[in-house]
Amino acid sequence: MTQLFLVRFHDPALGSRVGVQIGATVHDVTEEVGSVAMWLRASAGRVDAAIADLRQAVHSSPYTVPTDALNHEPAPDRLHWLPPVDAQDVWAAGVTYERSRIARQEEAKDGGDVYARVYVAERPELFFKARGPWVVGPYDRVGIRHDATWNVPEPELVLIINPALEIVGFTIGSDMSSRDIEGENPLYLPQAKIYTRSCALGPAIALGKVDNVWPAKRIAMQIVRNGAVVFSGETHTGKIRRRPDELVAYLGRALKFPDGVALMSGTGIVPEDTFTLTAGDEVQITIEDVGTLRNVVAVV
Q1: β-strand partners of 167
Q2: How far apart, in whole angstroms, are the C-alpha atoms of residue 56 and residue 53?
Q3: How many whole angstroms separate alpha carbon 160 and alpha carbon 166?
């Protein structure tokens, strides 16, 4: 059966819209769905049926948009992608890949024992990343802190979760991070991770229920500077140490998400210690069968 993707986009005449992407076409289903939050609430306890509802809604869509028409930097007077979340907070799991554990220990001035311990601990590292309205979409600008000297993007598969803590799909995420700030003291993690334009998601949510096994996907990242690739790396979701249902269960132990939530799953791609982002760099993150999230870097 054809893969469905849930998206959001801006129409100059209509404003924010919800769409279902099939192939290279986006079908406007705003009238049937309302919002991503409304659809996530409606999917609780009936994920497969809710996806089937979206498939049916395509038939009554008032109009369609080719995906190529959305591939622009956001501007009020033209079509463009919006991040595929609206009211959902974004959380993140840390040190879920061996590569991430090694990198965190290398950056830490105290030797990074805390990262070695959390990698093997029963309880995962989970932290707040962004409110839904803060999230940056495709072709928009992601930020690096003006008071940091070592900035990197962390490419991640992002789980989309409904209020019943069911995983309904996944998208691509860019977790912008200031490694020098975090490395100075682990208690500075919020400052290293949470700031203006530090979280990008998109372009689309690949719909499908996920339980205790990760979707087997290749994740790749390129960073382009002045037309040349200055960093390239890849990993695979098979290298994530913890199960998706395990991370979601810990996230929902003492929190409720009435509009759903997005959870970044950690990164297995970390540029070398000598690399840092500069303004104007383009970050391209690709997840197999999902698409590519493109963002240009700006100083905030």
Answers
A1: 161, 210
A2: 5
A3: 8
List beta partners, residue 6.
Answer: 20, 205
Residue range 272-290, pLDDT digits in tens: 989 999 999 999 999 999 9
Can you give the pTM of this predicted structure? 0.94
The average confidence (pLDDT) of the chain is: 94
**pLDDT tens-digit series, residues 28-80:** 999 999 999 999 999 999 999 999 999 999 999 999 999 999 999 999 999 99
Q: Which positions ≥6 away from 60 have C-beta within 8 Å?
A: 31, 32
What's the average model confidence in pLDDT over 205-234?
97
Taking phi first (over 0 means left), then psi (-120 to 50 degrees means alpha), and beta for anything else, what does residue 70 get?
Answer: alpha
User: What are the residues whose beta carbons fall under 8 Å from the beta carbon of 6, sequence distance 6 or more?
Assistant: 18, 19, 20, 21, 36, 39, 54, 84, 169, 204, 205, 207
User: Count of CB atoms within 10 A of residue 254's CB?
Assistant: 6
151: CB partners within 8 A, 6+ apart: 144, 145, 176, 177, 178, 179, 276, 277
Strands 141-144 and 291-299, sheet pairing: parallel
